[in-house]
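Q: Structure tokens for this one, please.
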Amino acid sequence: MLVRFGYVAMSVLVENASPSRTMTMASFKKIDDREAAIRKLERIAAENLHNTLRLLRHNKGSHIHVYRFSSKLIPLATHEDLMDWDPFPALQSDFAAIGDFVKENGMRVSFHPDHFTVLSTPREEVLRNSMRDLRHHVRMLDAMGLNATAKNNIHIGGAYGDKPSAALRFEENFLKLDRDIQERMTLENDDKTFNVPETLAVCQHLGLPMVLDIHHQWVNNEGEQPWDLWPDIWKTWQSPLAQADSPADRPLPPKIHVSSPKSEKDIRGHADGVEVEPLLSFLRHIAADTPELDVMIEAKRKDEALVQLMQKLAFYHEEGVEWVDESTVIIHP
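A: Here is the predicted structure, written as tokens:
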């Protein structure tokens, strides 16, 4: 099984390259000239996009093929007081440069809209805002010229005192989304509410690909091992929604998330790095029946955690772990 590792948004190895510089609405309103304030937002966004391209160049130089964009590339982009502002014309060339680099180098990229994007909500206002946020993420990927193989990953959301009703509400609201938003979506189990079996059931009903988070599964489960349901999770990646725009000879591999508990007292928090043994145990259990897998590392130390994990995996070269490049291994069953 070919396994590629990636990291989330920020680099701790590249200095002064934040893709998430922001501006609060309070600061925006302190600028008397509204047009000048909007131009400042666009300058901040252009800097975020420039730094994103810097990080992608860093990834290429480090042979890192999987990366998650920051969702904060454009400050205040979905704020209700700025609905008359369209930032994309001013940022067209910046987005295009990112998309061109991704395509030229065969990278797998994604977004993870934040926890305010909730389709299980019973509140119409929250649903409208969630749909607006999903549309914004699709617009960013479209502006990059990336097809539906670039996904937006979300959670089901809150249970609101009735988990079955919340799951059904998610499904009903998902079906209200435009097709291009649906084709870019993946669904992940969470660490408090919707566990793996529950998330998988929703994915099966909707034809959505499921991202298995093995840390979340460890703290929120029904007694199953993380590999128990893997065959069914893998099948969700064969659906038309999962494989939209994938070439017939190059299907989009499944993706999982990995992190380690911050401490015994904070088992849900993310540690600086990744413990190799639990991850390797999972990979070995699924290796025989999974040709390829992409793994998003959600550790506090970002790309440094990836480097350290690869160094740890190198010690297992006599135990079925074959080094391919600085972010890729082959796991032999």
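A few notes: The CA atoms of residues 73 and 304 lie 22 Å apart. The chain has one domain: 2-331.
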